[in-house]
Design goal:
mainly beta; Immunoglobulin-like; four-stranded antiparallel beta sheet; three-stranded antiparallel beta sheet; rod-shaped
């Protein structure tokens, strides 16, 4: 899907500043993630500080790795004076299409120091059969 933008003259639409607000908000709430490829496996690391293991779900279905979770709000103490809070809370979901040689069924994960580490081993792909020349006989 492609966003269609129209300008009806010299002045921009009043809605232009809000047009991509949803996408920007989703990026802000999504945990930082990095993916890399080693010789034997694909590795994904996602920053999840303050998220407990019980609040994270990891699935592989039809070649898609999905990470779901929620960072729950901690209750505020009444009577305190709050000046600002930059902490983020809420649910998130990230999905990644695995490469053809990834063995999603053998994936493993561990959480260490607020970072979720996922390893997806590589499997050997069947080598394409080499072309064979077929001799044509005379009838």
């Amino acid at each position: 899907m492609v966003e269609k933008t129209e300008h009806g003259g010299f002045w921009p639409s009043l809605y232009d500043p809000f047009r991509s607000f949803g996408a920007r908000l989703a990026d802000w709430l999504t945990p930082a993630t990095e993916a890399s490829s080693g010789e034997a496996a694909y590795d994904v690391a996602m920053e999840l500080p303050g998220v407990s293991l019980e609040d994270v779900e990891l699935t592989v279905d039809n070649g898609v790795l999905t990470i779901r979770g929620e960072k729950k709000t901690q209750s505020e103490k009444t009577g305190d004076t709050w000046y600002f809070s930059e902490r983020q809370f809420g649910a998130f979901r990230r999905s990644f299409r695995l490469p053809e040689d990834a063995d999603g069924q053998a994936a493993s994960a561990r959480m260490a120091d607020g970072v979720l580490h996922i390893a997806v081993p590589k499997k050997a792909l069947e080598q394409p059969k080499t072309a064979r020349r077929i001799e044509i006989s005379k009838s």
